[in-house]
User: Fold this.
Amino acid sequence: MKKLFLSFCITLAATASYAQLAIKVTPLTLLRNMKFTGHIEYLIPGTPNVSVAIGVSPNLFPKSSGLEDQAGGLYYDIDFDNSKAGISIDPEVRYYFNKPMEGMYGGFYSSQRFSSATLNEYQDYLMDPADSSYYYANPTGGTQGLRTHVGVYGLQLGYQKWLGPDDRIIFDFYVGGGTAITTRTYDMGENLGGPGFETEITQRIALRGNVSIGVLLFKGHDE
Assistant:
């Protein structure tokens, strides 16, 4: 592992003077169930303004069982203490229409989001007369595991601007759309009093739009 890491560092240092490399962060990601997204974008040497990028996000919450929480007359709720919000990985390929990693661009994007959860089983879902709120009651002691994968695939358009001293500050604006495929995989469960949930796959339209800010680390040999 140390030799592999050392080789990576040597290769990066050797190509830095010919490459463009930027690091960015997208801070406004709460609506995507993420704390933030950190990005690395790299211009592929020898290509007509083509870059590749990858973003990594810590998720806020694990995905639930979906639109309904009832199966076979029993109720299921997430046990947050035994669930993991997981991470999201966002790869991209961009083509810049005029300048390398600057100005208008278009391309492909994806988002691969992973989380896991434990669902507790209850006999009742009751209303509290004091405030009309609902709560789960009378646990059966049964649990069911859930692994969720959301795969988003689409196209995007954007504009990346360099600002500041030596044009090192980056503002990246982008919008796009595609499809999101959600796969919820349930295990057999333990001590369930009912049938629990079965694995399901759903699909929906996904829209994309946000702003990232960052720093251009290497500007390439043309700068």
